Amino acid sequence: MVRSFEYPKKQHNTVKRYNDRGTYELGPIHTVVNNSLVVHVSFAPNPDDAFPAILPMIGVMASYDHPSSSIDEPLDCYLHGYVSSRLMRLARDSEKGLPVCIAATKVDGLVLSLTPNSHSYNYRSAVLQGYARPVEDVKEKVWAMEQITNKVVPSRCQNSRWGPDNVEMTSTMILKVNIETGSGKIRHGEPHDEAKDLDREDVTSSTWTGVVPVYETFGDPVAATTNKVKEVPAYISSYVKEATTSNQEQALEAIKE
Hints:
The protein is an alpha+beta fold and 257 residues long. Helix content is 26%, strand content 28%. The protein has a single domain, classed as Pnp Oxidase, Chain A (Roll). Strands 1, 2, 3, 4, 5, 6, 7, 8 and 9 form a 9-stranded antiparallel sheet that branches. Strand 6 (98-112) and strand 7 form a beta hairpin. The model has no long low-confidence stretch (mean pLDDT 94).
């Protein structure tokens, strides 16, 4: 029997509405984060601010202490940013770590029902809560920078000028978020219309229902004006093709109940 790790249910992460769509399993939650090109990180700027701050960032789930850990095992979230940004400054000044929330969502389809009230998305979402601290160890920082860069395109670090020089190490800050808990929410399937509408011939005969698949498509690479490499490297073209195909398959699979 395969053991499934889950985040603990707490007041701030328990799914309330449509709780049957909720998941606390680490694998699906971490996968959403790592498959999202951008995550949104929220934090409290200071006690006097009326609103939380929310930043779009690049984030990746990984473990420096246990690099062979799989996606469904306990992982940290590494965030990349400029050293003097407000988020980085607050995390640096916090003794216990800066409390942050990390959110990511993938939309797999537009669910079109008989009535506007029943319209929905097929989606996968994840929210994590944890404490962010700067990565001080040089080896871990370089390792985290590699993980984040390779999230953009796998093997990109190894196929570029690597590693970082002194200026890049000084100007870049990596936050390591120790995750306290988290949750995910997943909706898949076709429209779920009510019987009162399904029994109305005037409605069913005039309103198209179904799912419009939604997925990220990667276009053909366009060389920079300063590029001197004649052919697009295979690791880039393969990733573009495979990622688009995988995204399309995910969207089509999500239509199934």
